[in-house]
Amino acid sequence: GWGRAGWSRAGQGRAGPGARSHGLCLRSPDGGSRSDRAPKIYTKTGDAGFSSTFTGERRPKGDRIFEALGATDELSSAIGLAGEFSSEKGHAFVEQLHKVQCMLQDVGSNIATPLSSAREAHLKRTSFSEKPVLELEQWIDSYSEQLPPLRAFILPSGGKSSAALHFSRAVCRRAERCVVPLVQAGEADPNVAKYLNRLSDYLFVLARYAAMKEGKEEKIYIKPEA
User: Fold this and answer.
1) Could you tell me which residues come within 8 angstroms of residue 5 by beta carbon, excluding any fewer than 6 positions away?
2) pLDDT above 70 covers what percent of the chain?
3) Is the alpha carbon torsion for 191, 136, 5, 76 positive or negative?
4) CA distance 124 to 65
5) What is the spatial distance between Cα 226 and Cα 180, in angstroms, rounded to a whole number?
6) DSSP per residue, 141-171
7) Which among 12, 134, 147, 184 is placed 20 to 30 Å from 40, CA to CA?
């Protein structure tokens, strides 16, 4: 189920949305509760093609909420891969990527809490502010000032770190496309869509920055001859 990702609130040291709604209650073989055993990774609660939101709704796994959650999870995985390549090259921005992954957990928490069925207690745990959006803008400005002017359409390239960041950017755009309808329907916070929009810009700028720092060539679009 979707609860496996945890949707933990970054820095707050508590299980987030998902753990409660996906039956992660530890049980011994005789049915008694056990607190000294790890839960099984499979819960079987989604075998019929349904999963739960944080608010307790059971929805089909093809619901747009789960599409958005899946795209966000894929985005975090792509950024994780880009972070590993970047770490091998000693890039200082790796810590920023880790922070972004933590913020994406909070993005998932908000998406998993449709406002149409959320109670006040849900909203307090899964709200998403504009502060992370402003932080991304600061990072974008900082790296942009160090880059050469953009004079041509850049193809995903520039070494492994850069190419992986470009791939993350593309996944981010898809995640944004999944989230926007939820925001327009009043089911998710507008700041979530804003964050994903800025994040794709950040990943693009960071990909260029990584290529520059590594001395790698950015391939540009050249119109094929007829």
Assistant:
1) 18, 73, 105, 108
2) 75
3) positive
4) 19
5) 39
6) HHHHTTSPP--SPBPS-SSHHHHHHHHHHHH
7) 12
Distance of CA 148 to the CA centre of its chain: 29
**In one letter, which amino acid is 138?**
Q
Please give the Cα distance from 38 to 27 (Å, whole number). 9
Confidence label for 53 from pLDDT (cuts 50, 70 and 90): low
User: Measured between alpha carbons, how far is residue 215 from residues 36, 102, 157, 161, 218 in Å?
Assistant: 51, 30, 12, 12, 9
Alpha-carbon gap, residue 25 to 34, rounded angstroms: 8
Give, as one character, the DSSP assignment of residue 130.
S
Domains observed in the chain: 51-214 (1.20.1200.10)
pTM metric for this prediction: 0.80
Two tokens, residue 139 = 């990072």
Residue 58 phi, psi dihedral angles, 5° rounding: -100, 120
The Cα-based distances of 163 to 15, 38, 53 in angstroms read 34, 38, 34
pLDDT value for 35: 52
As given in the structure block, the two tokens for residue 162 are: 């850069």
What lies within 8 Å, CB to CB, of 125 at 6+ separation is 9, 16, 17, 109, 113
